[in-house]
Amino acid sequence: MKNIALIPARGGSKGIKRKNIKLFNNMPLIYWTIKTALESDYIDRVVVSTEDDEIADISRSLCAEVPFMRPPSLATDNSSGIETVLHALEHLPEVSNILLMQPTSPLRKINHIEEIFKLRS
Asked: What is the pLDDT of residues 85-120, one digit of tens each?
C-alpha cells in the first residue's frame, strides 16, 4: 500500500507573496507540513506538487520528493485543487491513498493524520 501525502505549493499568491516559503517560526511555511507528514507512520511518501523551482529545491532540502513539476496552467488562482490531485496521480504509480496537505495549515499535528487513517480502518 502506498499512502502519499500530497502537498500542493504554488509559487504565486496574491495575498501574501511567496507565502509557502515565507518564514513561520524561523522555518519556511512549507517545512511544518513536510515535517509532520514525514513523521507519520501512515505516510509512505511525501510529495510536493509545485511549478516553482525555489519551492521544489526547498522541499527537496527538507526530504520531500518533487518527482515532477506542475504545469503553470495548474498553478493559477483559478486552478482547482482536484486538477492538481489528478495531475499528481498521472505521475505517481501504485498509489492507494492520497492525503492532501495544504502548506498553509502549519499547526496540524501527527495525531490528526493518524485519526484520518484510523477512520478508514
From this structure: 999 999 998 898 999 999 999 999 999 999 998 887
Q: Which of 41, 51, 31 is nearest to 101 (CA)?
A: 31
Burial group, residue 69, by CB count within 10 angstroms (0-12, 13-18, 19+): middle
Comparing 121 with 28, the larger pLDDT belongs to 28
> What would the grid cell of residue 89 be?
496521480
Centre a 10 Å sphere on the Cβ of residue 6 and count the other Cβ atoms it contains. Answer: 22
**C-beta contacts of 44-47 below 8 A and 24+ residues apart:** 44/1, 44/2, 44/3, 44/4, 45/2, 45/3, 45/4, 45/5, 45/92, 46/4, 46/5, 46/7, 47/4, 47/5, 47/6, 47/7, 47/88, 47/92
Contacts of 78 (CB under 8 A, 6+ apart): none
Residue 12: its pLDDT value, please? Answer: 84
